[in-house]
Amino acid sequence: MHQIQLGGIDYAILIVYFAFVLGIGFVLRRHVKSSEDFFLSGRSIPTWIAGLAFLSANLGAQEVIGMAASGAKYGMMTSHFYWVGAIPAMVFVGIFMMPFYYGSRARSVPEYLRLRFDEKTRGFNAITFAVMTVLSSGISMYALAKLLELVLGWNFHTSVILSAVIVLVYIFFGGLTSAIYNEVLQFFLIVLGFLPLVLLGLKDVGGWSGLTAQLEPVATGAGYAAGAWSDSWRHLGSADANPMGVEWFGMAMGLGFVLSFGYWCTDFLVVQRAMAAESMLAARRTPLLAAIPKMLFPMLVIVPGMIAIALHQGRGGLLPLGADGNPNYNLAMPVLLAHYLPSGLLGLGLTALMASFMSGMAGNVTAFNAVWTYDIYQSYIRPNQTDRHYLRMGHAATVFGIALSVGAAYATTRFNNIMDMLQLVFAFVNAPLFATFLLGMFWRRTTGHGAFYGLLLGTLAAAAHHGLTLPHGAVAGLKGGFLGAVLHTYPSEMAQNFWTAIMAWSACFLATIGISLATPRLKTDDELRGLVYALTPRQSDHGLTWYQRPATLGAVVLGLTLVLNILFW
Amino acid sequence: MNLDLRLPMGLMFTIFGVLLTGFGIVSGPEIYARSLGINVNLWWGLALLAFGLAMLLLAFRASRAGSPTPDR
């Protein structure tokens, strides 16, 4: 493809940004005195900062490149990741789960599992989570470097090393606080960097109605009804009526209930931001506050993908074609940046793109640090050391966590849509975990054995389902079918992933109930206080005005989301 | 935490605003063909400048009032 030439002004913006990112890390190094400062920001982060970081930590490669790619590939249906998936899940975390997470004083999600269940459940979660964070951050880095190579002609290896070193420096010095502060900076940069692109693009295609009209030939050309790219719910009646190849049940259950709740409720990467909040009330409000801007993100990340595919269809080949003859959807966002933004704003847009990768990477690295140091190193390798020792370990973990991510970056080359690969990883790890949490938090009879073996069976069920099915047109291997026989072929990778998640969740849910009933309960009611819903005192919100109360905030957020779903039905 | 985040954030966006507005003033109209003929650097630069200055103002007001965080 045609490469973009950056001007002096673009480099100036990029350099100013790097200077601020590193500067924040450097200034904050004075505040890191204990391991709790390094891993949990000394639990002193105000609500608005924790909320924006909660949002931004998840705003990595997956969000910006992946959502724009999905917007181009599947159209407006991609909004379900927000309006069916993320938002309801975030409300659930804030209202129902934060009282346990924050109240138990657990320092990580695996640690909560040890308090609630037992050592082996914690170990299992700690290890799978550590692997997953390294994978995710590797994907982030790979995507960034590949993009810069394609769009700017920068050397792939230089980009990997450069982004790794910058993230390394600011986390090494300032720990989680530095990561959180930078995530908030990155949040504003991402919004303010992409907004002019969206506005210009919409003006060019004639607003939303113009975009809808221009997406009609895209949909009919692919053999679907005219509105398939611009409606979110209307074409979910059956799997062959929409480009994603899912019907409403797979969408609501697989993506909405299992994958999104699994991710937002159990993934330590996001939960860590809320755990760092300064008070219980701040921790409960963190996800709710994050949900408000999150609701509007489809406009920022999905709509550009839709504009890109409309222009690609209407004005002849905007997106370069991949080896399989389909457009390279992952390039939707950068190609659009180059298409509309002149030197100056282009620099801002590219800086925003880099910021999103870095915040995703930093989120993973800080979560990896804490889980490695508290849940693996302190628990199994060297217990009973001084706090200084663990703080030093945290610094070391930052270095080798990033080194492992670099390794993972080089291993990531096989998927045409990054999102699909990430969903696959989540389906294996997070989907069964959500069943474990639901049972653990709401049913006191759930036992440690039940949780552990249920989780194991859930993960195995995910692997078995993935190994016995294939997405349409794929060959057996990483994309499925590796167990020899292919029992079912799904219309798309997305559909296969949703069903893998549903299978994993159901297997874990049923197995955990069965095994719990068959094994003796070892924890008394007293030991479970603060860990199980029925045994935890309700949070009293008396004396707060209505908009300060988590429950009303949650209801308002859900109401607004419902309105959005109906508007774009 | 005694670093008010609004301070570096306000400073960074103010610098971005000055850079973009300045570039928008000196750059010729030919580079704006792709942005539909609009001098986006100038207009968005002014918007960023306003955002940055507002952040700085909030940070200074808070530091004078003696409370480093806005929302508890």
Brief characterization of the structure:
With 569 residues, chain A is mostly helical. Chain A has helices at residues 8-28, 35-40, 47-56, 61-74, 80-103, 109-116, 119-152, 156-205, 207-221, 248-266, 268-275, 280-314, 332-340, 345-381, 387-411, 418-442, 448-468, 493-518, 550-567, and strands spanning 469-471, 488-490.
The outline of chain A comes out as globular
Residue-averaged pLDDT of chain B, rounded? 83
> What is the oligomeric state here?
heterodimer
| Proportion in helices of chain A | over 70%
> What Rg of chain A, in angstroms, do the CA atoms define?
23 Å
CATH superfamily placement of chain A: Sodium/glucose cotransporter
* Count of the domains of chain B: 1
N→C terminal distance of chain A: 36 Å
Please identify the structural class of chain B as seen in this structure.
mainly alpha
Which sheet architecture does the biggest sheet of chain A show? 2 strands, parallel
Quickly count the domains of chain A.
1
Portion of residues in beta strands of chain B equals under 5%
How large is the share of residues in beta strands of chain A?
A: under 5%
Shape of chain B: rod-shaped
**Strand tally of chain A:** 2
Distance between the termini of chain B: 13 Å
Radius of gyration of chain B: 16 Å
Query: Could you give the order of the helices and strands of chain B?
Result: HH
- Strand count of chain B: 0
Computed structural class of chain A: mainly alpha
Search tags:
heterodimer; A: 569 residues; mainly alpha; Sodium/glucose cotransporter; two-stranded parallel sheet; 19 helices; 1% strand; globular; B: 72 residues
